[in-house]
Description:
This protein is an alpha+beta fold. Helix content is 22%, strand content 37%. It contains 3 helices and 15 strands. The strands form 4 sheets. Strands 4-3-2-7-8 form a 5-stranded antiparallel beta sheet, with no helix packed on it. The protein has a 4-stranded antiparallel beta sheet with strand order 12-11-14-15, with no helix packed on it. Strand 11 (125-131) and strand 12 form a beta hairpin. The chain is rod-shaped, with a radius of gyration of 33 Å.
Amino acid sequence: MTKTQNLKSLDSQDDEITWKFENIMIAKIYGKDNKSRFYEDSADGRFRDRLKLDHQTGSLSITNTRTTDSGLYKVTRKSSGTPLNIFSLTVYARLLVPVISRDCSVLSLYQNCSLLCSVVNVSQVTLSWFKGNSLLSSISVSDLSISLSLPLEVEYQEKNTYSCVLNNSFTNQTQHLNISGLCHTHLDCIYCCGSTEVVIRLALSALVGVATVAVLVYDIRSRSLQQKRRQKSQSNNN
Length: 238
């Protein structure tokens, strides 16, 4: 990153050009011998060996820019007494391609496949699921550097096109979902879960099945009993 000032030559040997980051001195050009000085230990040493000054223009260059270089910069000329330029710089981290994986922590229906789209150590980004060109869901993070995950549930035999997109203000990275590659059968999750978890899942599935049968049997018996009572009531009336 280079910030160009296009300055004329220094007015006198006593003139100076100074650069500051968040009001901390980081570089200076002296008019006396037209030499430059870099304050390597200032600003927590974040600019060490990464600053360059152009004596003709007064431009400051920062090599290998990082997110920690974001902040307020000010360049001042001693002879003028006032800042020549004040600007804010924001450096965004390079976006990584999001990762789509099978989510075996979710107890899905037998015809469904649970998935997770994940990214790590991100800030000022949005993570989204798309079905074709339609937005299904999204989650955003501002200044904190954290990990994000966004769930999605699809059917095993589904033919729709899904994609997970990570984006910030300038660029984006997209990962397309391969349903046949990630979602083979419902039993796949048995191999990615511990034996105890598998037993719990099967027990829960069995309980759901038993409860459904119990409700159905109760409903049938209740209807049968009501019908017998009606028939008995009609016989007594006759």
